[in-house]
Design a protein that fits this description.
By secondary structure, chain A is of the alpha/beta class. Chain A is 41% helix and 19% strand. In chain A, the strands form two sheets. The first copy, chain A, has a six-stranded parallel sheet with strand order 2-1-3-4-5-11, sandwiched between helices. In chain A, strands 7-6-8-9-10-12 form a six-stranded mixed sheet, with helices on both faces. The longest helix of chain A is centred in the first third of the chain and has 16 residues, at 72-87. The N and C termini of chain A lie far apart (66 Å). The interface between A and B is medium-sized, with 32 and 32 residues.
Chain lengths: 323, 323
């Protein structure tokens, strides 16, 4: 019996394209669609056969690639990812990439060899050329090239929300503080939302935004804070960067939330039972994991239609703001 | 060609026993050893054949079973376990058991069916009867029935160390506070070490030790602290329980470390880069993961000789003690 690969070969297209034609994905060019349909007819192929073939190839395993599991944001994400994967009778392989490109590529190879059925990845490496849109891969936080599916939180509106919450807390002069990766990622929109909302609300603001791998960051942060000593509200790129800023503020004898209101991003907690470590813009981690797994399983079943999910964030009042 | 199973069948023993005979493990009874050797001879079997057979059955995957990955102690352990497993060219499946027995048993079944090559588990369930000593399983923290291998930190000496550190900090009346599981686990030795060292050093001490699943724990803790208001040093069963005690102490207007010195157990950090959350008796997590993986791979290769590792703990001075 012919396989889906035979259809792809006869039509001169990729397996993903065949799957998209079967799933009536409108992104397929008309001429391509006709070629695939012709091949399906010639080989006497039916979608049921294809589904069966797909099922046989299943390792019933997906891989989750994270920079490190030893971080509460990633461990929460892993917790909920495993929960959703497990509900479907699948297992989850965990990979700490330590941001090493080679380790990520190794898993992509496993996927191509059907040793895993799909990948959910948080990666900040430039591995776009290893990733094709025909593979079941869902990216979280950043996106790869256009073709790759992703789930992200609404970073832009998160930045805007932070400005409005600082204003509600009575702040008059605010700052964004953070670092960025060499590559553009969706995370950059946190700063963008912050800046545009500050302009729109006509509040004075300062920006500290250094490259992540930069030298003497702590010194630069302290210098920035000393030069802008009358800042009364700070939004940081994430909670952990916030902890670094708070240490410097302690050194400068600034009291939080008395002298300075403080809002982070992520909404990390050490565990389910613990408190949030600061006031924060919370990413809906549980829902992000759920959406990523759902999207991935659709792809595993051959449906490559839904590709982009942006989930709303919300404000959590912790100990570092008044309201 | 005969398999290792055939040898086991002919000798009327388990596969693990055959492997122990081949590896010259002295724990095998003389009469059993003779039966196995006879079967090996009859089937014309050689250890090399066995090694080859074992290798073919390898899924190159091990499973790590944790109550939850969303906890810094477990995520650190998972981080180092994956690192060590990955060095050997294996993958690590992560399972959040949520302390559910069924999920743990599901993985034991996978092991029996060779879908995974070994299991490292932190479990507090009564699953001893599902576990046999012939399977590559390493338990961390608690132990199963006698036959199962384990890696643990030196809980008893950890309890003793805490007493001595509180004394060094000038404490005159100290308390152990914690909860325990219905089943005895090695963790109980933290309290035992604390009590025996307090007696030996002739320091006044109190014990708060409730069953984990008990009701109104916070009320009971507060009552205990109010009744023993002159306590000036506390050791808790773990850091997270310590956080609960600290909240109550804040309510009682007790300052740490001024009024009360405080030592936890575990040594959790939110991530590699963060600080320890309190003064603590640190479990050597990195080394525990390394030992557990080493022991597991020896078993996977058929060597069931080394079964018990107890690793030394050490004191970390955090913000909740003076020295």
């Amino acid at each position: 019996m012919a396989t889906m690969k035979d259809v792809a070969k006869l039509a001169g297209v990729g397996v993903g394209t065949v799957s998209r034609v079967i799933n009536k994905n409108e992104s397929v060019k008309e001429s391509t669609r006709l070629k695939v349909e012709k091949a399906i007819k010639e080989l006497n192929y039916t979608p049921n056969e294809i589904a069966r073939t797909l099922k046989i190839s299943q390792s019933k395993t997906i891989a989750l690639i994270l920079p490190t599991i030893w971080h509460p944001f990633f461990s929460e994400l892993a917790y909920y990812t495993e929960e959703n994967v497990s509900k479907r009778g699948f297992k989850m392989i965990l990979c700490n990439s330590s941001s090493k490109k080679e380790k990520e590529i190794e898993y992509l190879d496993m996927l191509k060899q059907n040793k895993v059925d799909g990948i959910i990845a948080i990666t900040y490496n430039d591995i776009d050329r290893y990733v094709s849109s025909n593979l079941p891969i869902v990216s979280i936080d950043r996106h790869f090239s256009e073709g790759v599916a992703y789930v992200t939180s609404d970073n832009y509106n998160g930045g805007k929300l932070a400005v409005n919450k600082l204003i509600e807390n009575g702040c008059k002069k605010i700052a964004f503080m953070g670092t960025h990766n060499e590559r553009n990622t969706d995370v950059d929109n946190r700063r963008k939302g912050f800046e545009e909302e500050s302009i729109s609300k006509n509040i004075e603001y300062k920006i500290f935004d250094e490259i992540e791998t930069g030298q003497d960051l702590e010194d630069k942060m302290e210098k920035f804070l000393r030069q802008n000593i009358n800042i009364d509200g700070i939004f940081t790129i994430n909670d952990f960067f916030g902890l670094r800023v708070i240490k410097i503020l302690e050194k400068l004898n600034k009291k939080i939330p008395k002298d300075i209101k403080f809002i982070g991003y992520d909404g990390v907690k050490m565990s389910y039972e613990q408190d949030f470590i600061m006031s924060t813009i919370r990413q809906p981690v549980e829902q992000m994991a759920k959406e990523a797994v759902e999207m991935l399983f659709k792809m595993i079943e051959g449906d490559y239609t839904s590709k982009k999910v942006k989930l709303p964030v919300y404000y959590i009042k912790g100990d570092t703001t008044i309201v």
